[in-house]
Design goal:
This protein has 346 residues and is an alpha/beta fold. Helix content is 49%, strand content 16%. The chain has 13 helices and twelve strands.
């Protein structure tokens, strides 16, 4: 299983400047320690996981890394004009010498949409039209489109992509988006679903690909970047990890409630609901390793780790990342090599 690390800023418990400095450190460390991808996401105006300029962050990471791929997990497409977003994708691909993984999503946070003046109910229609522009643009092909939301005369966007074919992922939280990913020939990336649901989604994705008539080589390429995001809490003991995970889950639920309402108002609810619980991987090194290998056993090919900031602050998070790189990452990579010995030997 490939392993990526997701980097976002926070103002909860630390200053934003400190968390940005942490992201700069983590990108360089991930490149040296053997992680496969450095990811960023896009969220605005929230103290937790704010990355209001993901392209700027990835452009910086491109300059301080040499090996890791750089990915959007994911860009909120309806908040951008697709021509501008395509340009940003292409610039990051060029600045990183062809290491970009593009990521797209319709978005969901009412708070963000309201402040940007984009009707939330238009998000899926805007994404569908934008993809018809972004897809050829990021393949170096001419673009022309006339739709409800976007009108683009025939043109070519510069610079052309550095890599032959930029891989794309689509945030998939339900069966319809899994089918959409297959139809668009992009890889789905899952957030909170439990393992049993992920297994069903993987089967649905492959079945849809087969129904679309894709050959084995195409499906294998799409499988490569199918991923799942999880928050990681590594503890010196099981009890320590449980407590830290519970604290983070409460903060996460608060942030989701904030973003999910039109004015950022909090909604009441249990922060330890099943959706939040499914997105947490916590425990000792042995326990975390076992949980991640279980994801691989159901067919997951890529794991995106988001390391939580616990009571020990950013220094404690750095310690967890170092521990993960030293003890967990080699086990997952060894499993990947055993699964694909021919590609590993090549």
């Amino acid at each position: 299983m490939k392993v990526g690390i997701s980097l976002t800023a926070t103002a909860r418990g630390v200053h934003s400047h400190e968390s940005i400095d942490f992201c700069r450190w983590a990108a360089r460390f991930a490149d040296q320690a053997g992680f496969d991808v450095v990811w960023t996401t896009e969220h605005h105006f929230t103290p937790i996981a704010h990355t209001g300029a993901p392209s700027a962050a990835l452009a910086y990471y491109a300059g301080v890394t040499e090996r890791v791929r750089l990915g959007y997990a994911v860009a909120i497409v309806p908040l951008h004009h697709p021509l501008r977003l395509a340009e940003e994708f292409l610039w990051v691909d060029n600045l990183s010498d062809g290491r970009l993984i593009g990521g797209i999503s319709p978005g969901w946070a009412a708070y963000e949409f309201e402040l940007f003046g984009v009707p939330l109910e238009e998000r899926r229609g805007r994404l569908a039209e934008a993809w018809e522009i972004i897809r050829p643009a990021c393949a170096g092909q001419p673009v022309a489109f006339q739709g409800r939301f976007y009108q683009v005369p025939e043109m070519v966007i510069y610079p052309p992509p550095r890599q032959r074919e930029i891989p794309f992922i689509l945030s998939a939280g339900q069966a319809d988006s899994v089918r959409q990913a297959a139809r668009w020939k992009v890889s789905p990336v899952f957030g909170a679903p439990p393992i049993s649901v992920i297994a069903d989604y993987l089967a649905l994705f492959e079945a849809t690909c087969r129904a679309e008539g894709y050959d084995d080589a195409t499906i294998a390429k799409l499988r490569e970047w199918i991923g799942v995001r999880r928050f990681i809490t590594l503890g010196r003991t099981e009890e320590e990890a449980r407590e830290e995970s519970a604290r983070h889950a409460a903060q996460l639920r608060e942030s989701l409630d904030f973003l999910g309402t039109s004015r950022g108002a909090e909604r009441s609810g249990d922060p330890r609901n099943p959706r939040t619980l499914a997105n947490e991987v916590w425990g000792t090194v042995e326990q975390v390793t076992a949980q991640l290998l279980e994801l691989e056993q159901v067919g997951m090919r890529h794991f995106i780790a988001n390391f939580t900031i616990g009571s020990r602050g950013l220094d404690g998070t750095k310690e967890s990342i170092r521990l993960f790189a030293r003890e967990v990452l080699p086990v997952l990579q060894a499993s990947e090599r055993q699964r694909t010995p021919a590609r590993a030997s090549a």
